[in-house]
## 1
Amino acid sequence: MENDKMEHLSAAIDGELDKDKFVALLAKCKRDEEFHEQWYAYHLIGDMLRESTLPPVSIHERVLAALKDEPTILLPGITPLPQETAVTPVRRWFAVAAAVAVVFLTTAVLRPTPPAAFLAQTEVAPVKSEVALASPPIDPDIDTFVALHHQGSPLSGIQAVDYTPQTSSVRH
Amino acid sequence: MLLPTAQSSVRVLSLASQSANQTMVPTPIVPETTARPPSERDIDQLLVERAQRGDKMAFGMLVNKYQRKLARLVGRLVRDPGEAEDVTQDAFIKAYRALGTFRGDSAFYTWLYRIGVNTAKNYLMNHGRKAAQSMAMEDAEFSESSELVMDFNTPEAELMSREIAQTVNDSMDALPEELRTAIRLREIDGLSYEDIALMMNCPIGTVRSRIFRAREAIAVRLKPLLEVSGGKRW
């Protein structure tokens, strides 16, 4: 995969890569340090092979540092490229925690009568009977359906909630 | 299916006749794609368009690509290595600010070249100096004499330049024949992959792979040298 990326880069430098593929490669590797290092190295190699007396100038870092203070160029009528949002570790963990919470709550809502073990550990245990009474009649097949889908869910390992059918006679 | 053009066939036959030891029969190779790949100019234009849409890193790639050529041009005019680097940097920043005026009517480097010359001229004027005192400005612009460059390289820069060139040459010598031929035909003779495929009697995909592998092998040998000279780049 890594070799494919660099081989595409090599072909792009020679003007031998399909434009769409180059655009995709740029989008994918915008912040890829190795990609930019190779871009530099491949051009240097070409320059040196063609003319070994080119000065070994390396000012691109200085130029980029100077450009940080420059206002971003945006031509009128041209759609700006989407700005990248840095995915920080904190944001990543927040996203995972939110996803787990949603799955957990969804599971709890789907379950008409929470398991006794769960209720015993929570303050909301007294609500149990009211919730159960307010629930609509349950299709006996729903437990099987939910159990199957629960087991097939990629999140089932993460949420670590044991699903025990409560609303029908089906037992696993 | 694209067949070899008359022009490329003629070139293949002429090059084949120069090789006494090898019999090079120009067998038509079926290209892997029929869509015309973008030229180098198209690639530059694409990077410019991305920069015009706010992607500074795309402009950085253009800087990375043309910094040596522009520095050489500016160096011929300014003639002081330290000043030449500053003026080259200024030229790139001016180019960035003027990107909105670049419409792709000319190649990006042609446009950048004029900015480089004008920046150098202004710099010299502002410092009360005449352009390249010992030679006319226009001569400097179009001179391809490498001696002129070496005259005003610092000893350190000259040494580094030689080391890099030597490493590239040594790496080339160490390459397997088919990789060396492929990258030579591309970088020195400027042939397209299609023409190289015809010459080497192999598919275009093989040419692409050989050129890539050659570059990788050379880049690996260059890496320690570049780390010493330039440090972390991105």
## 2
Amino acid sequence: MSSSRRDFFKVLSAGTVAAASAPTTALGFDLETFFQKHFRRLDEEELTAVLRRKEAAYEKQFGKKFTVKATSAFEDVVFGYGLDITRCIGCRECVHACVAENNQSQDPEIQWIRVLEFERESAIRGIDLEKGNPYYNPEQVPQKDKFYLPIACMQCEDSLCTSVCPTGATWRSDDGIVVIDYDWCIGCRYCMAACPYGARHFNWKEPSIPEDRLNTDVHLLGNAPRKKGVVEKCHWCLHRTREGRYPACLEACPVGARKFGNLLDPESEIRQIMATKRTFVLKSELGTNPKFFYFLGGAER
Amino acid sequence: MDAPDSSEPNGYQPPPHQPLIWGVLGTVALLVVAGVSVRLSENPDAARAANVLQALPADAEATLMDEPEMDDEYDPCSDCHEEEPTNYTVREMDDEHDEMEFAHGTTWCLDCHDDEDRDALHLAGGKKVDFDNTSELCGQCHGSKIPDWKAGIHGKRTGHWRGEKEYRPCISCHNPHLPAFEKRKPKPPPKPPARNGAEVAAHEPAPAEEGGSHE
């Protein structure tokens, strides 16, 4: 009896040693990934190891070389976004530019930006998001009696999603961008229930990305390819914006309705808008303090 | 550089819609009075730098993109127009240029195109404007857009929010002859959520989902 028990422990410890020494084990998963620390607890060396390991894994999975970054926030920046709803024509160029930039799954389909179509007349009673139609598809836009309201993550200053996350897998960075550590997300979807804007999306199945659409320039907390069972959302293209570039949706907009910049810089485009235009945020009554400002730029159309 | 002047340019016979022109000239004259061009006569270079319409945005790193190239078929205008005497009658372009569409308020050719130097444009006051520097011309009527454009509120910018940003002259987005944006087919809509493998028909308006998407 006791000898068989001793044998059992011998086998077990031999197995553990083997498991620890090989990156992928007979257990069927990678122990280093399994024991990967939370992003904010990684020291520099560990972070580098994680990034290189991700690059290798993505190359194996997609057959392409990836650059996985963890660019940190600028110290003197809090980001803000502006969108001129008098100018948006509802063409969905931003939606599809975002899908391509951020490696969103085609099947099942995930789109971080949702453009809602509203009756112009209804605006007089305020914007009721439940009345918005995301499925509009006329021959031509803009339609005369409609207006369009693109919605994605508002990067709330008082974000509800981050406060309900049981694992701390999502948090607000110093530059205001709400990020997700996909390796710490357990897929409980509390954040989706908490978000008043429907900005978060769940990978019900293994995501599929067409090969010709893969973006290999990725940020670990942003557009790095996700896996089944995790939540994802807009992160204001932090792989671009933390290098000083504009987000992809902004550059895709054919009418220049999208504006982006540093809320701490009075000369920035977003601050100029706040100083000179009428702006509003969605569901301000909830006290989430979004940093996505809709504004009336005054286009005639 | 000539200060804008409210007298009529040489040989220019104003088209019948004078109120617009006089409105523009009035505005220009007011600007002059307001001191915009006070220093213009002293130093032409300083004057150019001080020109509110041509000035770069406050951000020194902004780069103004080139104006779009003219259609080869028409460039330069003088190829045809040098020989033809100028016809000052406001009319439909149903002979020459009949393939072009014109819908820009009540303006017509010679409001912007110079009647003597056919390879130039002019401001309402007669000052010549190059084809590759037209935003000043647009700003005569669309004055409220200019400060917005300079501040980056109006118009598309690309490149960097911090670092080099590219901004565009008016006519790189707006066709000067047909300035309203063309309507277009929108890109494909999202798929409605599937229930038990079958797509739920999209209602008009769509089924209200509490808090939006749950895909």
